[in-house]
Write a structure and sequence with these properties.
- By secondary structure, the protein is an alpha/beta fold.
- The protein is built from 10 helices and 14 strands.
- A hairpin with a 2-residue loop joins strand 4 and strand 5.
- The radius of gyration is 22 Å and the shape is globular.
- The chain starts with a strand and ends with a helix.
Length: 300
Amino acid sequence: MLRVSNLRKDFTAIRAVDGVSFDVQSGHILGLIGRNGAGKTTTIRCILNIFQPDLGEILYEGAPFTEAVRNQVGYLPEERGLYRKSKLIDTILYFARLRGMEAGLAKSEAMRWLKLFELTDYKDKRVEELSKGNQQKVQFITSIIHDPKLIVLDEPFSGLDPVNQILFKDIFLELKQRGKAIIFSTHQMDQAEKLSDEICLIDHGRVVLSGSVRDVKKRYGNNTVHLEYEGKGAFLKSLPGVKSAMMYENSAELQLSDGFSSQTLLPLIIQSLELRKFELREPSLQSIFIDVVGEKEAHA
């Protein structure tokens, strides 16, 4: 569906994108991941020809990406923008007509999506009267109402509450099942891990890790212990054999040194903590991310 090869973009003395390459196929979701400022948004804007890349090739279904295929793409930008004084239904229909949709089809699709997002009762309200989450739903509808083959979403979960995050996740999976190719950028590793078929991790404009989520996790081994416990677990990161630790309030993810057995660790832990879970499995995408880009940069 889409192939990006050796993409490069410079701004004065800054190389924002440096040799980025990836593919996304129909019926697949690609997570474009990285910390804030890593180059994700610039990469997306180059793909869509909002920014003219300085180098590289972008192929859509085997041919150069041109204005002629723009209506086959749905784009949700990072900076949301709606006409705040317009009614919901008028806003959606306006964007649908811009995409070349016939009036009758545009209205029926608008009403279908409004029902799906539980916004039917708001259709005649002004955009400015809606909550931020509901405005984001409307923005999303305007991005996909024309039934695009390729969907590009820049930080789609930003600002959404947990209920709406689940709703968006379900819509993503439905679109995937309908054969859409989806690219979404995020710095939320849990969302990327749950939704992506493949990931492309960008840091300082370069791809530093890519592949299927399954293969990436296998590449980083399965010597990781996931714990849930009662008590104070700060001491866990200093236990023998613990290479690195992701610590939370009452849980932890411990990456063990090569050759170190989790069973050696268990007696040391139960002396001080009441364990609810002790499980050996592959590392999370979050811990891999920290390992690859470094803890300080990951939180920059």
